[in-house]
Specification:
Helix content is 38%, strand content 20%. The chain has 211 residues and is an alpha/beta fold. It has one domain: Vaccinia Virus protein VP39 (Rossmann fold), CATH 3.40.50.150. Helix 4 links the parallel strand 1 and strand 2. Helix 2 packs antiparallel against helix 5. The longest helix is centred in the first third of the chain and has 19 residues. The protein is globular, with a radius of gyration of 17 Å. The N and C termini lie far apart (57 Å).
Length: 211
């Protein structure tokens, strides 16, 4: 029985690598990512999902949904709103090393983890930003192609980026949502497209917003 249990993680990683067509280097990065996440979860509540299969599907594979709906080879810069433990942008960064990524996170414990993750994975062109969303919009200017968030902030708050005074009003916003999600009436005008994807046995969707 012990041998069977020992083989399970190895099999899960093998299937993950095959399904996502990962290089050996990318697979190693994801293994390091999972190890750091598991280690830090013992002290801090970074994520409620702590088993390997859950991390692979609910965090890594869910983050990958964007690569099937948008050509990330044409994207240069990504800002991750409420990045938490680095999802979805760090998994995407591993797949697309050319991306310049800003991780926006106000929780200090999660900031520390993100910095340790950047160092542990030797990620280049990845920064951690400690500003809250409203302060970020009000006090910064930058050139980001895409903003991403896995439902960290409600859509009314997110759409502040499309105000005339916003430095980021021309960017695209991608919002990870449940398949049942419907936009608030004041948000509906910003929704350009909702693209469904399947995660395990459930359907979800990526909501693309812009002016």
């Amino acid at each position: 029985m012990k041998k069977i249990k020992e083989k399970q993680p190895e099999k899960a990683w093998e299937q993950f690598a095959l399904s996502q067509k990962l290089s050996d280097e990318q697979l190693e990065s994801f293994k390091k990512y999972e190890a750091l996440l598991t280690e830090w979860n013992e002290q801090f509540n970074l994520t409620a999902i702590k088993d390997l299969s859950g991390i692979l599907r609910q965090h890594f594979e869910d983050s990958f949904a964007l690569k099937d709906k948008m050509d990330l080879n044409k994207v240069k810069t990504v800002a991750d709103i409420g990045s938490g433990a680095g999802f979805p942008s760090v998994p995407l960064k591993i797949l697309y090393p050319h991306l310049k990524v800003l991780l926006m996170e106000v929780c200090k414990k999660k900031q520390k983890f993100l910095k340790a993750l950047i160092e542990g994975l030797d990620l280049k062109d990845v920064e951690v930003c400690d500003l809250d969303w409203r302060t970020f919009l009000r006090t910064t200017e930058g050139n980001f192609d895409v903003f991403v968030t896995r439902a960290a902030i409600n859509e009314l708050e997110l759409c502040r980026m499309f105000k005339p005074s916003s430095a980021y009003k021309e960017a695209t916003l991608v919002y990870w949502a449940s398949d049942e999600w419907q936009p608030h009436p004041r948000v509906e005008k910003f929704v350009k497209e909702a693209k469904q994807y399947k995660l395990g046995h459930r359907f979800r969707k990526l909501v693309f917003m812009g002016l």
